[in-house]
Amino acid sequence: MEDGNEEREKLTLVARKPCFGLPTACPTCLPVYVYLRFAHLPLNLEFNLIHPDSDQIPFVESGNYVAYNNERGGVIWSLKEDGIVDLDSDVRGIPEWVSTKAMVESWLADAVMYELWVGSDGKSAYKIYYSDLPWPIGKILYLKQVRAVKQLLGITSENAERREEEIYRRSTSAYGALSSRLGEESFFFENRPTSLDAVVLGHVLFTLHALPETSLLRSKLLDHTNLVKFAESHKAEYIDANSSASVPESDPSTSASRRGPSQWSSKPKSKPKREKTEEEKKFRRRTKYFLVTQLVAVLVFLSLLGGSNDAEVELEDDDDALNYD
Amino acid sequence: MAVPTESHPHLGQPENPNLSDPSPEPDDLDDFEAEIDEEDNDESEEDDEESEPITPEAQMRVDRVSMESLFKRLSTERVPVRVHDVLIKGNTKTKDFVIEAEVEALLKNATTVQQLLQAAGVANARLQQLDIFDSVNITLDAGPPELPGTANVVVEVSEAKNPLTGDVGIFSKPEARSWSLEGSLKLKNLFGYGDLWDGSVAYGWGQASEVSAGVSVPKFKALATPLTARISLLSQDWLKFSSYKEKALGLSLGLLSIGNHDLSYNLSWRTLTDPSQMASHSVRRQLGHGLLSALKYTFKIDRRNSPLRPTRGYAFLSTTHISGLVPDNRSLRFIRQEFDLRYAVPLGFYHAALNFGISGGFIFPWGRGFLNTPSYLPERFFLGGNSSPVCTLRGPTSILGFKARGLGPAEPRRQERGNSNNESSDASTGMDFIGGDLAATAFADLSFDLPLRVFREAGIHGHAFACTGSLTKLTENAHRELSFQKLRESFRCSAGFGIIVPTKLFRMEVNYCYILKQHEHDQGKTGVQFSFSSPL
Lengths: 325, 536
Known about the structure:
By secondary structure, chain A is mostly helical. Chain A is 60% helix and 5% strand. In chain A, β1, α2 (29-38) and β2 (44-47) form a beta-alpha-beta unit. By secondary structure, chain B is α+β, with helices and mostly antiparallel strands. Helices cover 18% and strands 40% of the residues of chain B. In chain B, α3 (96-108) runs antiparallel to α4. Mean pLDDT of chain B is 80; it is low at 1-50 and 419-428. Chains A and B meet through α6 of A and α6 and β11 of B.
């Protein structure tokens, strides 16, 4: 019991499950993990596999102290307020830092959310969030989450294409801005890691490793090689060096973690998808017309048959009479 | 001639007196046969009554004499009879086999008239119990004239005119673990299979609420046992005690219900959340979704003379709960066993009785890595609460004197960083009771009548009691540190006396409890307390 208490006193981050070669594969948990790694704090990493729809995760606990993600602006802000760790003390006053952070936390976060739940086939999302829940629960929660994301992003059946274009356009300009801000440096501001670096690193690692190769967002990111290099070098230094047993290579099918920057490939298939939806719509319209005509024909036939019933009966009688003859 | 009314049998003509008949009195038998001959002659000549030269008064006298001798015979001898056919009338919607299944075997097994009358009474009661008929009449009639010694039974039912009934009441439901105010609508016999559909809404004492709908079918085709199915959405609030809220969407099927045995299957989706964000460490680790697929077997014997104030008899209840019956190893897997034993001894004076009881239970997970996984939090045992252990047969749950969930393993809740200087302000309320894996309770209760007659007539009586209980953790390797010494030290005790007021719906007690022994974080309070229990 005493060992357990000592364990509980250490700083523990509870996040979602690790996969795709990342210590935690959830896009909200990964930046927090990276931030704590930047701060060189001794960290325990634990996982919650059964509560995918909770906004309390990720949370940091130490003894009886807990910093939830849905309080006071997030875990990173709570850690600063409670005096545990603060990497942004020098840069918080720089307006460019503030606006870059705001851009990343709104445009790029929306883009990742869109790509994960709406834009792709959902296999990545299923693997990260629902693979440890029994099938019926996982399926129902996934469908609920897709609907919630569409509501959050303001996507309806009428404006779906327009919103998608807008989201991709914004992410393209965000990547361009980040790339030019970073240049050849290793950090964005003052050559030191800040929470902005943690958030960007988390986003880039997630987009490169967890999204499928057909993802449009991923292919847009691959256009900016300095961002990819930034991600790969910091991953090697801060994450893989500390990982030891906490990052299981449990997925033999994705060998993404072994690739270097020159080996990233992308197969965007957005255009064929758009044509397909138009074809689908035409097909559905034609099917509807066909079914309606069939129904009308059946109704007409029945009404004619009902009217001419007597005539047919007489015909039969005549036939019988003929037979008897 | 006087045709017998519905409750009187009319025998077919016995041509050959039964040789196995124990003591036939020849005179009576000859008279009887002669009278029956006359009556049969009367029956065959339906059209021509006036050919018989008997006055109406004489006819009545003859009939009365024959009836009297018939009754005399029925009361003294075993009059053999065989049931030829069971006719069912009056059922427009109900399927024939539903009624036949309840009564046919019973009636056809009767070999004498007395047995037949008894069987008819039992069959009537069974049909009334189906709760789908307004009235049931069973008539015994003569069999076909060519088959002597036979009788036909006519079952006439009148189906309920209004299939929809509503009900509001206070009940105790095992799912809610406390009792509740419930409103329900019942739809009877919708498909003619004797099916009862009901939908109900219940609001419970411990901030529990439930919406459910169910169907029960008494006998479906060849199955010998009634089937029930129920879908329910249950939500319970334990924030004050254990910092979590529980929501369960479940389907339960009653598979077998024969005699003392009961087997049911339950499939439910459970979600634990913590909107207060103050949960302790163990509770935080258990928040989330889970799938429970479990079989529950209950064995119950209750031979006490009264569930509200038992003075004689014993009762035994054993419940076994095995969960994790789907091949998916991500569902919740545990075994839970609890039992209750009660014994009441009458003492002879002042209507006094001594009641003893002992209850125990344990829960343990199974499956891969079961030695290191914690047990499922809502299914653990929690002791405390204000229900009397004398009436309630629900496993180890109650010790008088302690608040609900007021004893056992407890963990400190989350502490705000800013309040780390004011530790004392949070100390008393900042504990979550997380329940235990091994529970045991025992009690002794002496109940007696009060000297005033007005109390005795109202059923108000007094009692003195002593209870003890213990709750310990077994999982996550805690069982290695458990020794006999530690187990003995983990027992808490309380004693007291009080007055019991039984009402039609529940049993109310006013008790003075004195806590003899409690542990550091337990919430036992010495003083006057009210306690409510219902005998279900």
